[in-house]
Each structure stands twice: as C-alpha cells, then as structure tokens.
Automatic annotation (TrEMBL):
<dbReference type="InterPro" id="IPR000719">
    <property type="entry name" value="Prot_kinase_dom"/>
</dbReference>
<dbReference type="InterPro" id="IPR010730">
    <property type="entry name" value="HET"/>
</dbReference>
<protein>
    <submittedName>
        <fullName>HET-domain-containing protein</fullName>
    </submittedName>
</protein>
<dbReference type="Pfam" id="PF00069">
    <property type="entry name" value="Pkinase"/>
</dbReference>
<dbReference type="InterPro" id="IPR011009">
    <property type="entry name" value="Kinase-like_dom_sf"/>
</dbReference>
<dbReference type="GO" id="GO:0005524">
    <property type="term" value="F:ATP binding"/>
</dbReference>
<feature type="domain" description="Protein kinase">
    <location>
        <begin position="163"/>
        <end position="509"/>
    </location>
</feature>
<dbReference type="GO" id="GO:0004672">
    <property type="term" value="F:protein kinase activity"/>
</dbReference>
<dbReference type="Pfam" id="PF06985">
    <property type="entry name" value="HET"/>
</dbReference>
Amino acid sequence: MKLFRRKIKASMELKDDSNSCFLAESKLNELICESTVTKLLDEHGSKLSTHTDISKLSAFICKRAKRVFAILVWIEREHRIEEFYDNNFTDEWLPIRAKSPDDSDDGDCEVESLNPESKQEAVRATFSKWSEGDIDNFCDNNQWKFLAPVFHEKQFRYEFHEKSRMPFLNRGDQKKTNFSFVEEWTMHSDHLQIRANSTIGIPSNAKGYRVAVKELKRSQFVSHADFIKNAEAEAQALETIRDLRHPHLIKATAYYKLGPKHYFIFPWAESGNLWDFWEKDPQPLDSGYLKWVFTQLLGLAWAIRELHHSDEGAWRHGDLKPENIMCFDDKSNVKNSGRCILVIADVGLARVHAMATDNRPDPTSTQSGTVMYWPPERELPQQQARTRRYDIWSLGCIYLEFLIWLLYGTSGLRRFRTELRGNNKFYVIQPNQAGQMESARVNEDVQKWMDSIKKDPRCPQNTALGRLLNLIETRLLVVKVGPVPSSNPAPSTKSQYGTGLDVSSNPSFEIPLLQVRAPTVQFNGTLSASGGNSSDEFRAYALEMHETMEHIVKSATSSGNTRIEWMGKSDKPLPEGPKKFGDSLTAPQASAVAGRSRSKDLVYFTDRFSQTLDDNWEYTPDSDSAREVFAGLDLPTILPPKKGISRLCQRCSSLHLWSSRCSFSDTPAGLAEKSEHCALCQLLSRRLAGHSIAKHETVQFFRVGSYLTFGDRQGQPILSLYTLPGAHPFYLHLSSHRTIVNGTDPGPQGSDPLLSSIQIGFPRMPDAGSPTHIKVLAEWIRSCDNKHHCYPRDVGFLPTRVLDVSDSGSGTVSLFCDTRGHTNPGKYLALSHQWGSPLQHKKFCTYKSNIDKLKQGIKVSDLPRTFQDAVSITRDLGIQYLWIDSLCIIQDDENDWDMESKLMEQVFSSAYATIAASCASGTDAGFLKAYTERQCVTVETGSGARYYLCDAIDDFSLHVEQGELNKRGWVLQERALSRRTIYFTGTQSYWECGGGVRCETMTQMKNQKASFLGDANFPKSVEDYVKGKKIKLYQDLYERYSHLALSYNTDRPIAIKGLETRLIRTFETIGGYGIFEKYLHRGLMWQRSGDTLKRITSFRGERVPSWSWMAYDGGIKYMDIPLGGAIWAEDKDMTSPFKVNNEDNPEDGGEKRLEAWVCDIVEPQSRQLIMDEPGRSFAQPLRCVIVGRSNQAEGEENQIHYTIIVSFVTRKEGVEVYERAGVGFLEKRHIVLGDRGAKVHVQ
C-alpha cells in the first residue's frame, strides 16, 4: 500500500501545498480501477475477514466508493473498507463530520454525514469501532483532498462545507472593490463539465479552464440580513439571465456557498473589459472593422432589450459601465485579431420589474451604481420608482465614449474624460429658485464633444456614424424619462444577432437582411411610431434603441438604393476633437440642440450630493442681483478712475477677449517688457508675480466663464471680465438710465451680442457703506427672502438683551432688556467680531454696575468703531435691533454668562442676518473701510461697446475662511448657526446663505464644504449624504475648530456646544465632547496634528474626559482609516461612554467614562505610537485599548490594530482607572492578547 499511497500523492494537484492539494476526477478514476483494487485487496487479504468476497468488494469500491477507498488508503486504514461495504457507505454520504462528545447522546464521539439523504444510523455503525483519533484523522483534513467538487453546466447553485477544497490550480489577476473580490483562477478541466459549444464558452489552457471567481464582501454599513438578501438577489438575477442564453449577456457558471462565504464563477474574459480594450487605439476604420463595431454595439442594445423585456420579467441592470462590459475572444473569427465579443456582466444591481414601473409608486431603493454613468434621475428627487430607462442613459454614455474612441483614439477618449466637469458625469443638476435640485441638463462638455463630432467629415448625418451620434444625442442622452409604455413588448426572436456569432445551429455569421418595422406603442392614448416626434422629448426605451441600431446596421450592409456608408470620407486632415479652449469653457448661450434648451449660466452648479469634498469653488454670474442693483444706478460711481480706453500693445489689441474661445500665450519676461506701454500686459504681469513661474516659461491664458485664468482651466481666476447694462442684452430695459460721464457716453446703448458671455459687474467697487453698497446688501436680503426662504417667517425669538437702534435721529441707541423667557417679535442682526488686543482696543461691555445706565441710552459716538459700523448697517437696512455679545451678556455675572452661552444656538439661528466684521482686527478697527484699490483695463469691441478686465477678487476662502475673524473659535459656531451672514472684508462684501455665496462683484460662488457651514438649517443638508460623507464633514469641521484660537482655552467645549447639539440632533444619536455614539470608534481615533497637545487642567462647569480632544489645547486630525477598512470593537469589548451610567459614582462629577479591556504593549517606544504629549513621562508601562482592527491580513501577525494608548492613574473601588495618552497603529505582534481580566475605566 505504501507504493500506492506514493502514486496518489504524486497524482495530487498542488501536492506541495498540504492545505490546498486535491485529487482530480480523472486521476481518481485512473488510480481506482477494478484491476488495481483487486490486486491491492489480494495482496492485503490477511487484514480482511475470511468471508469477504474480494471481487464484490472491488466492484463496490470502483462503482460506488472510490473516494472512500482513496481516503482510507491515504490514512493507512484501508483494511476498514469492509465496514463501509457492510453498511453500504458510498461516496454519496461524504463528507462526514465528528460530533463533539457534548453534542452526542451518550457522550461518545459520533460521526454524521453532511448529506441529508444519507442514512445516519448506517454512518454511525460504520465508525462505531473507530478510535477518536482515527475519526479526526479522517474528518478534519484528509477527506477534503478527495472531495473537490465538480461543477455541471445544468446546475447553478451549490453549497459546500467551509473546509471544502475548490478545484483551482493557478491564481492570476485580482481585483477588490467595496462589495466583492474577484480573482482569476484556472479550474481543473475534470471539475467543470460544460458543452464544447457552450455560449461564449470558457477559455481553456493546457491545465484547465480560466474562470473569474467573485467573492461577495459585506460592507460594515450593511447588515448580515441585507447581505444575504443581496447575495440571493444577485444569484437569482444571474440564474435568470443565464437561462436567457444570450451571447451578449454573461453566463454565470455557478453560485456556491463555502461555509459562510458566497461566490460566483464566471468565464474569464481574455481581453479584459471595455475600458481595457479602449487602452489601445482602434484599427484602421475600414468597412470590415466598422461592421464589427456596429455589430457589437447592436449586440449590447439587443442584450438590454432582452433584459428589459424577458419572459421571466423586466430586469434593469443598474450599473452599466465600460468596466462591466467584458471582452471575450471570438473563437470563430481568429483571422481578425483585436476583435472580440462584448458581453454585459456584473448584474449585482439588477432588479426585476415584474410589473410596469409607472404602476409601482415606491421610489427605488436599489443600491446605487457607478457615478459617472448615472442618469440624472438618480440624483433628482424621486417621486416614483426608477424605470428601466436608467440603463438607456448609461448605454448612451458608453456609446458616445465608444464613438469618441473610434474617431480620436485612446488619447481623445482620455481627454474627453478629463474635460468632463461636475464630478465626471454626463449631466449637471440645476437648482431652482429655492436652491432645490429639481432639474438637470446634459453636461456642456458632453454637448461640446457631440457638436464637434457633427462637424467631423467622417460623421455626416447620412452615415452609420452620423446616425449613431444622432441616436445618442436625441434619444439616449435625454434627461426626461417620460411615461412608460402601457404595453410590455416581447423580445424579438427574428433579429437576434449582433455578436459576430449566430446562436442558431449555423455557426457562421452573416448579418441577416431583416424587414425592420417601426414599432407601434401606446403613449397616454396616442399611437406613435418609434421614429415619430410625439415622444422625442423623452428618453428612448430598449425596444426603440435596439430597432434603431438594427436599422442602422441593415442600411449600412444593404446592397440596394437605401444603403448608407459606414462613415464619410475626406481628403482634409482629420480633426482631433473639440479644441481644449472652446465654447464649452463657458455655458454656450447662442445655440440650442435638438430642441434642448441650453443654460445661460456661464458656469454651472453641481448637486451637493455628488460633489467631492474639496476646496475647489464654482463661479457663476449673479444675474438676478445685477438686474436689480444696476436698475437706476448712478454709473459714474462705479466706472474706473481712469477715463477712456486703456492703452494696449499690438498683440492685446488684436485679442478677442470678449469671446469665450479666446486663448493666448506669453512669458513673464514678455509681459514685463510690454508692461510699459500696455495696461493689460502690466495687469497680467502683476497677477503672475505671486506664482512660481520661470521668467521665460510659456504661460497659456484662456477664458473660463467671465474670467481669465492660466495654466489649467480649473485654476484660480486671475482677471474678471465685466460689462455694463448699456452693452448687455440682459439690460435693454435699463436704457432710460443712460448716464453721461464728463459729456461722454460710456458706451453704446442696446445689445452687443459680442458681450453675451461677459457678466454684468462693477469695474470699480462701490465705497463700503455707500448707497450703492447698501443697495447690494438689501438686494441680497430681498432675493433670499423671496427665493431661498432661509429665514423662517415665524421666528418669534428675541434675545435676552438687544440694542434698539431705531431712533436714528437722536444719535443714541439703548439696551433693550428683560426678554428672557419670552417670545418678542422683532428682527435683529447679530454681530460676529473680534474683541482684539486689550492694549489696542477698548472694551465696551455691560457689567452689573452699568447695565441700568446703558438701558437709558448710549451715544453712538461713544461706541467702539466696529460697533458704530454695525449700528450704521443695521439702520441702513431698516432693522430695529442689533445683538452684540459684549453688550448683551453681563460680562461679570457668571450665572448670566452661563445661561446666555447656552442660548448661542438660538441667538444666531434666529437672527435676521449676522454681520461678520471680517476685516476688523478689534472693537476699535471698524469694518466699513476703503477697499483695496483694484486695477482695471477698459477695452472696446469693434462696435464700440465697452467691457472691463479687472483684478479677480472673488476669493471667499482667502478673504473669509482664512481671515483673522474666522481663526477665532467662537466664530465657527456663529457662522454655522447663522442662517445668513454678511461678511465685510477689506476687498468686498460677501453674502452666505443656504443658496450659496454671493459676491459684491455680482458673482455667485459655491463649494460643498462651505455649503455645509452655510446651510441655513445647519446641518440639515447632511441628512441626504451617505455615511462616509457625513463622517468626512464632521471630522473636517472638528479638525478646523481644533486649530482655532480662543481667548480662554477653558471655552473649548463651550464655544462649539450649540453646533455640536445641532449635529447630534441631525445624526439622530447621542454624544458630546466631540464624539458621536453613532460614529464612536472613528470619533475616538484622533491624533495631534502638530508637535504636541497640552492638557487643559480646568473648565467652566463639568470636567472633560481625556478621551476627548476637547480636553487638550492644540490642533488635531483624525487617523486615516479607510471607510469599510476596519472591524470595530463590539460593545462587549468596549462600552460607549454614552451608554455607561456615570452617575453611579458622584465623585466623578458626572464625567463620562469609557469602559474597555486594556492590553499590554510589547514595544511601547514603537514609531507606531502617536503620543498626545510626546515629552510627558509615565510612572508605569503604557497599555492600549483596541478600538478596531484592519480587515486586511485577518489573524496574521502584521494585522493592524487601531488603539488608544492609555496610562494608569488610580484604582477606585477595585476598578483600575486610566487616562488617554495617545493613539497607535499597532500590529498584532505588538499587543499581548492574553487573559484580559476585568474592564477598566478610561476617564
């Protein structure tokens, strides 16, 4: 038997890996044959019973128990084969498992079969005389070597024991996503039984079949029940689609469960996915190649039609993208390398629509697909269930990219993708007047490329390429979804071609010449053909798309009079796509496409739900405000000081700066040289001076919106372009306000179309506090009141004390008091300001000693300059009351201060608006200052209409967010809680509300991070964000706050209390001290951002626990732990401080404590430790609390553990008490994971 065992081992696959080796089916059959078995039994007959008939035993083994015999030989217990024979124990009863003594009835070790069809009594009888060691030897490892499963084409679902060994040989490429892990494997050919002509087939090599094995992964945000539900839904979808036997739909090989894990097996696509395919340039565009391209595109349309209208129900894919379209080699077309069969895969999001979607009122809850190929309805408010036309938009995107790749190659396709704005989507969301996202339009960059392709000589309208583009533009990339047909068309059975393979019995492929009829479908009682116009405003459905593609292919392959060419021909140099600095850099107003209106916004806003959290700002003209502000305006007050046209050099004189397509280049040295005699070169030279550009480096300038920028069209604007009402078509009605300046008309009245891409704005900023300035502020308030409704109409709150400024003629104001606990009508403004250095600015405060005097009246002239300016603005805007902290809180009354500080949330959220004195360094500085002088160049068009190029000063980030005022800790809360804020900077004024930021230059700005703080109902906007984005926003907020200055560091938890309360309420959780129960683990994982933190030793009121960053002075940041990348500690290991009853011990003073187990650290000086106070020494060794661990390298010694480093403080009532000392990224080998004993308290 030893020799036979050696033969078995030599025949094993992966024989060198004891945990993975297995015996393949063919080897098993080769080794276990009657002649060999009979010979072995004869040679070892002495170990068998005398009554045993060896011939019958041999026949039993070879016909029914080959695996059993092989296992027995392997474990050197071959003589026990008689016990299996006597009990008729066959291979079908494998595998078996040993029940523990605790599970058995008599306490002995018993064996049971995992096959529910087996006879368990016979199984137990077979092993009744076996020792426990022999049973374990059979069950634990050895049986699995001989039980590698065999997959059959007719069976789809399998369930295996977790120790089962899959018949996989070599592993290839791997790909991991948040929801799955895909690996390429070679499956032994014995273990995959498929027909030779199976649809698409499974590619094979010398060793076996190449397959893709997809393991489903459960995200930490998905419950176990939902994970099982989603896995079953995907399995159901794949099983149904596999039964369609469609050549352009992936045919899953199997779905199996391996213990608790879920897997799918697919054919391996040798040529990768469609994006991989596009990485190489297309072949020459001859008729054969174009025929193949259109055949594949037709096949995809046919596949979607089959999905949407199958006999099994109406399926929607939900995640169409190039990465989910696989490229399989066409075995029937080996002579044409580089051509493949496109197959739609990854139906993990597919959902069946068993009834017509418009009869299903509930909005779809299917997990979202890939953002770039989302249709617009994915982000618009859902009023009804998502339709199958979701897929039509996605396929339209893919068709357009395929067309761009065909015409302009890989580089052209990459350029198209980089030029897409608005988070790389094919559409943009448009807010309505109330700021709500309720409509969408095709992305201007997408339209730019389609417009350019129309002009390509290869794509005239009456060619296959031209008709494909027309289908994409007019029927697929259509925003309106429209009604769903009342009938559900059955899939066509006469036009099923499109792969290059005929799925009928004829293996050869010829495009059949079919009679294509226009389908008749009923829409709201009106009959119309698919080619008609009655439904053209709505996106096509799959039937129309497929038949249109079919008609294009038929027309291009016809030999009759209706034949069209695949593409047009031209002797001219071929274009390379639209110019980089084309019309798309501004929203084109002058054209419309196929009845689709084009926005007049120069730059668009994107939806807050999809925009990335970055520091990039979007700019758009504030046309509505400009219309109102400039009506009746005294124009001389806003014209540049230098009258007349600016002097320009020859180059600049010839530039069409009014054109949105304008671009030019120069060097810093060239600009400096021309600056003496050219105002524009001088201005550009000065603007480049602050950038790191070599003197002779060529710089490209170009128009973006109503700006001039350089280097990268996404860069910061350096010049703003403005025009005045008399030269802009938007202001024809203002001609009655024509103004003469020094006897000279500033420009021709009426419309000059050349200036249509330039916004109305101020060439010279109005003086701060001037009538024009006040008019701008009043317009912002009026516009917000009428359109955004950021300030509720029913606000009845008035703070405890306010200044009454209504008596403007008396030169006094008075402190209006005693409203606490009452709701008094009356609008008030709140002042946000710096107190400033006491050495430079006088303190003007309310104290117990002077409050009665202040009630009687205060001379405005006695107030500090900043307060005087606030009074002036409040009066000019017609508001009666003004709230100023130092005057409206009694500064030497602790009880009053404590009570009023708790009202800060209501004070700022109830204010009609907040005045932010951004440019005032203290109370005496004032904020109505002369603006920084702005250089301006005056230019004329050929018709004499003037426009202006001025320093670009729209920089909310620099002037406000990075300004001195916003570096103060209290101001962050004031900004977030204020519904509307007016910022007075040294350059201009800004307005911030729920509708975004408005600039005094008549420009609007928007950024998602800023919108989070500017939300009029802060932080309501985050309710629609996914969990990861909510975490990112609040962490960014707290990181920012931790770096801000406070006059008293003891105010650290108080100065943000109102803001934190709002967040807790919105997140629907509990929490405090900068930590939310809902995001407890990530919230605890903060670290110092600088050299050290400093523990704050005393606070006003309750103590702050050491696990909170609020207990320290200094900036923090959160540890970089990937979303979905951690397995967090459970409640039994670490109990939240918000769940622990901290009132049990009154000596703790109500301080929140964390209860957890602590572990010793092997290397406490490791660089993986980030100490809060690096210079601090500790009397006892540091220990750690494990908050979570990485889900990578699970169980291995290098697995990362996310920990809080703690130091021992004392022992109270038998419980050890610790304090936080830092955090750590500790590998498992650095932590002693032994007996943890009792939990400790971290206070």
